[in-house]
Amino acid sequence: MPLQLQPNFHDAAKRYIRDFSPGDDFYQLLIDTHRDLTDEQSAQVNAKLVLLLSNHIGDIAVLREAMALAREGA
Amino acid sequence: MLKSYTYPKFAYQRPPELDGGPAKRHPIIVVGAGPVGLAAALDAQQHGLPVLVLDDDDTVSVGSRGLCYAKRALEILDRCGVGDPVADKGVSWSVGRTFFGEGEVFRFDLQPDADHKRPGMVNLQQYYLEEYQVRRCEQVGVEIRWKNKVVSVRQQSDRVELNVETPDGVYVLEADWLIVCDGARSPIRAMMGLDVEGRIFMDRFLIADVIMKAPFPAERWFWFDPPFHRNQSVLLHREADDVWRIDFQLGWDADPAEEKKPERVIPRIKAMLGHDREFELEWVSVYTFQCRRMARFNHGRVLFAGDAAHQVSPFGARGANSGIQDTDNLVWKLKLVIQGDAPARLLDTYSEERTFAADENILNSTRSTDFITPKSAASRTFRNAVLQLAQKHPFARKLVNSGRLSVPAHYTGSSLNTADSDVFAGLMEPGAPMDDAPIVVDGRPGWLLDQLGNRFQLLLYADDPERVPLDAFAALKDARIPVEPIIVSPNAARRGGVRVLQDVKGLFAKRYDARDGTAWLARPDQHVCARWRAADPAKVRAAVARATCTA
Question: Which of B376, B378, B394 sits opposite A5 (nearest CB)?
Fold first, then answer.
């Protein structure tokens, strides 16, 4: 499966009325995960998050594509 | 004094009570002649309830303030007779452009919902809305007492007593019910010692209204970290009369008095618009904001609405819009209570439904604020990464949050709803604000929502309008809480004593998931409260009882 670049956030436990809500739920979760951490702690959390999610995705072709897109403009 | 607008000055009149006139009891007194208080007054008048409005000033809002009026607010204003002037004078827009640093990230088109009477949003200075509402009050006979300031409130078991200060002295008024719309700093809330809880945001924003003849289209432009205002955000929006609203984020350390001075403001605007652009500064303000609400909105005979009850950040236009939705929810309930047709605990559901809506508004506007003004380095890094990815990738565009524009709450968990016993698709479930649709009635094109409101109504959908058994529903019209049957059909017909709405484009059927025989019970505030695949008068009566706490 190619890298998903369309909006894809969802939550089986919720019924969404507005199309922006699942993405906003995700974004708040992400920011809350970093709340009250130092910058160094945040960098560590981000690194662990990338590793956890990469393993979950597993497909190295997809990860290669994501890594290339993430590096653009860096 | 503004160059584009002359403030009306409304005449103060010496209240008769000061000359020993009889102190009659008022069924409803509204405190505050802002957009929400005036919406409450016009709604009460619409429902045949005598209402008196008190305001401590004698003109409309100073400065543009509440700027965007959303579709649901326009529909409520329509129901109360001021939708047309607001929509006619307001600036319709649908395109939003988002910039980050030097470049444009993306543009979106809200695509005003086709086949709805009202667009998603119009921009209009708050003073125009208030002026139109005051004119409407004059037309329909709502008394507004200007320069009448409430200085004390005493709640008794059967009434509320007010001391009111005027230029000629203090007098006493009595009301059965008090609707408090006296704004974010609500003096009455303070007098009653009631708390309002939430978050203060450590940031300051500069609003400038400028007059300019600019060839820019009526679009919403939002900049994150632009070269002319580094590390902060800027918003440009068009208003009526060649007036433009510009918001600059200033940061918490800015000095509000200093930042308001023209010699500080004008260079900021020139840096943004370019030095050749001619403009005049119309109005400037520096504001901070809070996201907070009262624990409950009804306190005995005192009912809080609008900013007095809840405050949000300005991102998403959820202030005045949600306040107008408060009064839409409140007034029909208050009418039933005043008439003795429903118990006072129906007003608890005003608080139940509107605190739910306030929480949704606070959640959305807090999220926007956190995106626009990140509070940590990690948050800023993510925000900027989203903006970079948004240039190319649709998923990231969806995450860009420069304000989620005001949409009404669906009261899906409300105790007033009758739960579905049949299967439906779509969003028009119990608690939903009703979607509009083009219809033809009496041979003339019109809109569904213009046919709805102010009373309970039963929409009966039928392929053949001649075959609807109206006799079965006739008794509903004469019940203590009456229900008006209305036929909706893809086909035209004339039936005695009942309106037939022809679903000319089939959009009602689509939006409501209608089939032959389906019925919806509509509340007086144009919300669904029950629906069935087959209508049964006994079920309709039970649903009305549930929706009015009279079961």
Answer: B394
